[in-house]
Amino acid sequence: MALKQSQQLKLSQKLLPQQILLMKLLQLPTLALEERIKEELEENPALEEDLNDTTDEELYSNEDSDDNSEVANEIEYDDNGDVKEDELKKITDEVGMEDYMGDEEMDSYKYEVVNKGADDESRDFVVVDGIDLQENLIQQLGLKDITEEEYTIGNYLIGCIDEDGYIRRELDLIVDDLAFNYNLNVQVADLEKVLKTIQSFDPPGIGARNLQECLLIQLERKPHKTREIILAIEVINHQMEEFSKKHYDKILRRLEIDNEELKEVISEITHLDPRPGNSENKEATSSAVVPDFIVAVNDGKPELSINGRNLPDLKISKDYQEMLKEYSRSKDKSSKEASGFIKNKIESASWFIEALQQRYATLSICMKCILEYQNDYFATGDENKLRPMILKDIANRVGMDLSTISRMANSKYVQTPYGTFLLKTLFSESMSTDSGEEVSSREIKNILKDLVGNEDKKHPLTDDELCAKLNEKGYNIARRTVAKYREQLDIPVGRMRKEI
């Protein structure tokens, strides 16, 4: 078979390192960005904090050195020192970012008309360092008068405790683990003895194997056994299923008590901690949220500012620029290698500075657009004035890709005169009323919360009844949609909302 030469014209898209860096920085909230900048300062000696009162225009102009201007990309700025919108769009939207980022790089939005927003089931947590539960338990174990074998068993059992405070692995399997890993030939009874010791530790309920055992441990550790506590122990021991399903009539008959006594029993049980593993971190996790955007209202007009907080001004090291000049003049091989290393560091520093500037410009352009789109809400704080808004609405207005808008909104908080909340909660799908008016699904959720809040707790509303009441108010909504919204609002089904 003869070899042939041929020409082929092919169009392909490739991401530049600057674009990847920008996309990564764009999705970081303020706190994470602070850490990212610290990391970059530690890793790249060519990047320094600018301790002088340097303006942004001077900081990002890169005019300190001819060598530096060669390695940096040329970016056009406007009179205010911000990246021009046309330049920004070239960087952010030259290619579809989702084609190059893996699933773990993408945020939770859907890139369709009905994208994720306040209506999708998601949870956002502020995570901070707290007390290590296992270390605490091991310290308590070390204070006990036990044998070396029992300490080894206890140490292993503590290692099996999950984040909720439970040991969910079967004890007979742990027996096999100890035999295989530590050459310990023990019985399940030996483990149960040590486990009882661990279950006497703080926080109460730790080391339980299920919810029933967890609640019983806490009730048994009550210093004063009142009638209500004794009855609560009886309920958890022998009527756990009836209690969990709120079949209170069966409990009343079996215990031969009245409604008032049952209320006191329920109060004792509901004040117990079903997840003792999290108890030591509860105060730590209630950390204040750092907003990325701050919206103030002056004379009825919303005004935006972006939280710079502790973000330092950055510059390229003059020492490194001088070193690059010196090594560039030398013809020595080692000098050329050093010159290449230094040039690479300066280039990386320049990209990082420019990406930060572009991030600021992107956040500013997109948030200003959101502010205009939801002007009535930000001006008044009335949630009923929130317009239905999806990612595509903002993307079309600013002329950017959906993925760019998604990254801009991801994990960002906005502080307003009406509270601080996740930016993505402003995004919601639209629904039509009987009059043909487009309303936000968030408005429907607020009405749903009011209906549940004002219901008769002895006869809570079913999903069908909630659906009927919403339809009476002119909202065309199906029962399954009511169930979806109820679950997203963490409202249990009617049967579980029943009270005595």
Write the layout of secondary structure elements.
Blueprint: H1 17-26, H2 30-43, E1 47-49, H3 56-61, H4 66-71, H5 85-93, H6 133-142, H7 148-159, H8 171-182, H9 188-198, H10 211-220, H11 227-238, H12 240-244, H13 248-255, H14 259-270, H15 282-285, E2 293-298, E3 301-306, E4 314-316, H16 318-329, H17 333-373, H18 375-380, H19 391-398, H20 402-409, E5 413-416, E6 419-422, E7 430-432, E8 438-440, H21 441-453, H22 463-472, H23 479-488
Helix pairs in contact: 1-17, 6-7, 7-9, 10-11, 11-14, 16-17, 17-19, 19-20, 22-23
Tell me what you see in this structure:
With 500 residues, the protein is of the alpha+beta class. Among the domains are: 133-280, no CATH class; 430-497, Orthogonal Bundle (Arc Repressor Mutant, subunit A). The chain has helices at residues 17-26, 30-43, 56-61, 66-71, 85-93, 133-142, 148-159, 171-182, 188-198, 211-220, 227-238, 240-244, 248-255, 259-270, 282-285, 318-329, 333-373, 375-380, 391-398, 402-409, 441-453, 463-472, 479-488, and strands spanning 47-49, 293-298, 301-306, 314-316, 413-416, 419-422, 430-432, 438-440. The protein has a 4-stranded mixed β-sheet. Strands 1-4 form a two-stranded antiparallel ribbon. The chain has a two-stranded antiparallel ribbon with strand order 7-8. The radius of gyration is 31 Å and the shape is extended. Mean pLDDT is 79; it is low at 54-77, 80-84, 87-130 and 281-286.
